Amino acid sequence: MKRVVTLALCAISVLGFTTAASAETFTVECTSTSQLCNRTATLNFNSDGPWIEYAVTLKAPRTHCSAVRYLVYSNDGNRRLLGRTTFLNAGESSYVFLGSNYARGSQSVLIGAEGWFGGCNTGRLHSWGVDARVYPVPR
Questions:
Q1: Residues 100-126: pLDDT tens digits?
Q2: In the chain, how many domains are there?
Q3: Domain range for 127
Q4: CATH code at position 44
């Protein structure tokens, strides 16, 4: 997995706390033989505490030649599905609510992908990329 890390310099104020939104770009190579990639990317973010709700924006890179659906999982040992996007074409984006109850400090979620037959995808997802940004949900 190739990972390019970009820290977004924007700050968002929620309930009197200032949280820097974090953004990362991932490229993931799959070794599975199906549309569901067997590898995930780990998206790290900082939590201001369990009372803040978070979401993640997921954008398909313009270089994608077929649609992809992103799946977001907890990274707490249970790997439960937190949400998924619709199938996104190159350049399209969507979001997934991560919820609240994250302890103050460094946290992470896992991002996976599922391919869609069409374009350059002939029945197997070989690789995928995503631009992901975690942010607190304004109240």
A1: 999 999 999 999 999 999 999 999 999
A2: 1
A3: 2-136
A4: 2.60.120
